[in-house]
Amino acid sequence: MCDLCAPSFPEDKTYEQLVRLVTEHLEPQRSEIAERHVFRLRRQRPGESLTEYLQALKHLAATCNFGKCTTCSTIEENLRDQFVSGLASDAMRARIFAEKKIQYKEAVELALALEAAERHAEVSGSTGASVTNSSSAAGDGGSAEGLHYTRGPGGGRDERGVRSMQSARPRGGARPLLGRDWMQALNLKQITLNAIRDDNFVNQLCKDFPEVFSDKLGTCKRTIRLQLIDKEPVYVRARPLPLALRARLERELARLEADGAIYRVEYSDYGTPIVPVVKSNGDIRICGDYKTTINPKLKRDFYPLPRIEELFASLRGGEKFTKIDLRHAYEQCLLSEDSQPCTAITTHMGTFAYRRTPYGLSCIPEKFQKLMEETLRGVEGCVVFLDDICVTGSNQREHIRNVRAVLERLSDMGLTVKFDKCKFLQDS
């Protein structure tokens, strides 16, 4: 502020004068000629859609004072002229030039329609190219060393309508890769790479540990016992169920019964209403609302769950990471026979008691955490939080050794994992 007011002092000026000085310093007045020069030079860039190109022109026109000029063309006329002259496609520009009189909005609508038609033709139409695709890459013994230029129609074209691209034929029948330049030319903009997996390593794990990667529900070799402070029964009848969830709930009950997780009972002193939880894939997870029945009566172990800071500290120094997810984790643990009656749930299909550990019991997370930590105790580079296991190592050899050690422990305990949710050798 003192520099802006020099040689005077800030206290010698009024508030309005100070505001004007700061405004002029932070927002210097733009040169109208320079702004219009930048506007006139703007062209549609390679890979830029018409919508993106038009938005860029509008942004530049905002500082050109087209609307304040009384003698020059209006802002829409300037946008129309620059929009058409800067188009990357000569054919599109020629089609608009064929119109004797065309307004700004009409020019934009026509260009967008031509762009949509061109995009559809590129994807679904015949290219008419002289290049023939072969299903065999090793038929003539071609190698990847001799790269050559190939010409063919594509989404990213130069002014002549074709684009030269490098292509290579791999030796030995290997599958060729599509590079970024080809993706851009073919207008493949939505391709993302979320993970890279060493399939040889993963396939070998599946062969070595088929019982761990089985589609069947595992059965833990240790049982869980529930202890009640008092054994006075509590029964709450089934709650009304939304009709939209009824079919999915019945399928989940059938699955649980087929897996041996629940069994039907004709009479029960205990009864807990259920809370259906919709998972991200649309399936239903059945949770008993045990807070209204036996949760207040359960004896707790109060085994501590690890904090996120502790987990990260244990993984420090890891090069890559593997995530292992147990299949229906709690359901793999059997309940002791004397613990099963108090877990009974009430549904519109009747009363069922749990043979395997249900969701919703307040003491189960700490019991399960304790079980998993005891199962994996001594394995290096491994942390566990309930049903999620993370494994790492300072190098790939150590990482693989630790992963195999974890799978051996799970196999010994009779637990299975959900292969689709596991991620191996990830950077983060």
TrEMBL record:
InterPro entries: DNA/RNA_pol_sf, Retrovirus_Pol_polyprotein, Rev_trsase/Diguanyl_cyclase, RT_dom. GO terms for biological process: DNA biosynthetic process. Residues 124-133 have a biased composition (Polar residues). Transmembrane segments: none annotated. Residues 123-174 are annotated as: Disordered. SUPFAM superfamilies: DNA/RNA polymerases. It comes from the Eukaryota. Residues 289-426 form the Reverse transcriptase domain. PANTHER family: PROTEIN CBG26694, PROTEIN NYNRIN-LIKE. This is Uncharacterized protein K02A2.6-like. It comes from Papilio xuthus.
